[in-house]
Structures are given as C-alpha cells and as structure tokens.
Amino acid sequence: MPLTPPIDPMLAEARWQLPPANALPGGIVAEQKPDGFRAIVFARRDLVMVQSRQGADLSRAFPDIARAARALGDSLVLDGELVVPHQGRLDFAALQSRARHRGRSAEEAAVADPAYLITFDVLESDGTNLMSLPYRDRRARLESLFATGVLNAPFTLCPATADRATAQDWLNPAWGNAGIEGVVLKGLNQSCLPRKRAWIKVRARVTAEALIGGVTGSLTGPLSLLLGRYDASDDLRLVARTTSLAASVRRELAEHLTPATADHPWAGRRFSAAWGTRGELTYRPVKPELVAEFIADTALDAGRYRHPVRFMRIRTEMHPMQVPRFEKLGEKLGQEIRPYSG
Fold first, then answer.
1. Number of alpha helices (DSSP H) and beta strands (DSSP E) in the chain
2. What are phi and psi of 5, to 5 degrees?
C-alpha cells in the first residue's frame, strides 16, 4: 500500500564519538549530516508534497522542490535534508528565510536562493513500500536512481562511506565551513523504523573561548551561562548559552562571579529563551571579566552558536582582551577554534 503523509521519520541518537563497527545491525555506514531541514518528499502523480519532520506541508514554501518532484518520471517517496547553498557553503539562515515565504515571494526566493534535497533514503518506489527492506538495499536503489538519471538536481545524493577513517575526517570542524555538521551512522541491515532513534548521530565538536556576560539562576547558584565576545565597536555580543551546569561547577563559579554594574553592556538587553522562539530569557548580567572555555558543535548563525554549548572551565590565565573578537560570519569558523578530541 502506498505511503500516506504525514510519515514519522526515523531518528538518530546523539553520541560524542564514533561507535564501534558492530554497534548497529550488519555493520555501520556513515553519511554526512548537512545543516538543513529534514524533509520527506512525495513525488507521485496523485500527490506531490514536501513534508517537514513534524509533518507540516512545506510545498508552498519550496515550490522549486515541489515542481522537481512533480516532473519526476518515477513515483517515489524520498527522505533527505533540505538545504540552501550560498557562497560555497550551506546557509541555514537562508533556508529559514525561505521557509517563511509563500506565494509570489516564495517563487522569488526560489530564484534568489534555490533549494536542494540532499537525499539519503528512498521509502517508496512505484507504489511499493520499501521501509521494511534493509538499509543496504534501499541505498542501492537510491544510488541506481541517480546513476540512471531518474534523480538529478535539485535532488543530490548524500555522501556515504563504510570507511571509518573517512567518517572520522568528516568530523573535522573544517567541514563546518561547508555546512556539514557531522555524520549519521546507519546499520546496513536496519529497516526504516518511524519515530525510533535507531541511528546514531555524531556532531563535529570544537573548543573556543568567550566572556561570561550573564547567568540564569543567581550569582550564588548559576544554572547556565550567557557567553559573549566584543565586536569591532566594543559592543559585547551574545555568542552562546551553555547547557545546565553541574552542581560542582555552580559552586566553583559562584566564587568568581561579580555582580554587574549599571554600565554593563547588556543592561536592559533582552534575549530569546531559545533559538527561534519569541519567549524572553530571564537572566542576571555579571561583570564580563571571566574567560570561559567551552565545547560546541559547528552550527553557527551570524556569529552565534545555534545549539547550547558545554562549559569546560574558567581560563584564569587569559585576560578578557585575549578573547577573539566577535565576527558576524556563521559562514566560517574562526582560526582560534580548535577541534575537540574528547
């Protein structure tokens, strides 16, 4: 029976390093993890739809992908990652912008910033549900679709490898400059399991420094840290928020944090409670004199880390002016950022 939207996609469990080769059924294959939106594309004569991970219909926001799906000669359901390339890298901000457009503005955005589907799975072919097949068979069918020209731009094949050294290389933070966040590991004998976190995702990690500019909670019991860097105009810019701090770290930081004065750079400044939300974060500014070292993934947007970072330690030997300056890039990781090796 043909698949009916919405489909719950198969998911991945986050790990900090590559697992052993026998961690998943049949051995593992690594695929690059691009910085984009998960999407399932229905390309059938009676149904064309670009479905988001949450089940929403994105077809009107991405009319270029919908048109390409409608033009396919074969009836297919494809799983992949929607991306927008810009100046040699995948631009997540441009992708977010495209998702907000509809109608004429969506068509104009498609011309200005064309989208692509980096395809990593075929779930249905000619009305036959393939989800029960092992990954190795589905991958072979997908590669055949590209090799025979059935699939071409804006559909692209997600790179995959069974070579551990290559997978490890894809975890080099330098790939973050191109918009590759890390790798997703899949078992050769795995069927597609909706809603199950049965794959493994490993993100590239880096270490870097920033100033502690504020805390959530209190100065005597900080729950998380707001980290900043000064820009060229000497304005302290928010670059990251940490994950929740361990009790031992809270006690250590409480001994070093100093209350902010009235001239704090963030006096009266408001920040969102989470990325992409309108909720306001409740925080307390502190004197920006402590340098924090942290671990982060490579997802940067306009100089700010998209995901919460992990606090490592206070760099007591570093002066605040030694912290690298804020750069509103997001397109390129600064040279001061170092790979994290665990």
1. 6, 22
2. -75, 155
Helix axes 92-99, 103-112, angle to 10 degrees: 160
Q: What is the dihedral of CA 164, 19, 241, 243, to 10 degrees?
A: -170
DSSP class per residue in 48-80: EEEEETTS-B-TTT-HHHHHHHHH-SS-EEEEE
Closest listed residue to residue 17, CA positions, set 178, 227, 167? 167
What CATH superfamily is the domain 11-203?
DNA ligase/mRNA capping enzyme (3.30.470.30)
Cα 313 to its chain centre, rounded Å, is 25
Helix 103-112 with 63-71: angle, nearest 10 deg: 80
Are 11-203 and 205-339 in the same CATH fold? no
Distance CA 333, CA 126 (A): 43
Report the C-alpha gap between 227 and 291 in whole angstroms.
9
For the chain, how big is the Rg over CA atoms in Å? 22
214-230 average pLDDT score: 96
Cα angle 279, 282, 285 (rounded to 5 degrees) comes to: 135
Other residues' Cβ atoms within 10 Å of the Cβ of residue 37:
23
Q: Are 36 and 92 in contact (CB under 8 A)?
A: yes
Q: For residues 119 and 87, which has the higher predicted lDDT (pLDDT)?
A: 119
Each residue's pLDDT tens digit, 152-205: 999 999 999 999 999 999 999 889 889 999 999 999 999 999 999 999 999 999
Task: Judge contact between 16 and 202, C-beta under 8 A.
Answer: yes
pLDDT of 246-264, one tens digit each? 999 999 999 999 999 999 9
Rounded CA-CA distance 272/263 in Å is: 22
pLDDT exceeds 50 at position 335: no
Q: Do the beta carbons of residue 83 and residue 95 sit within 8 Å? A: yes
Pairing of strands 11-15, 89-90: unpaired
Which CATH code, of 2.40.50.140, 3.50.50.60, 3.40.50.150, 3.90.226.10, is assigned to 205-339? 2.40.50.140
Domain boundaries, the chain: 11-203, 205-339
Beta bridge partners of 187: 28
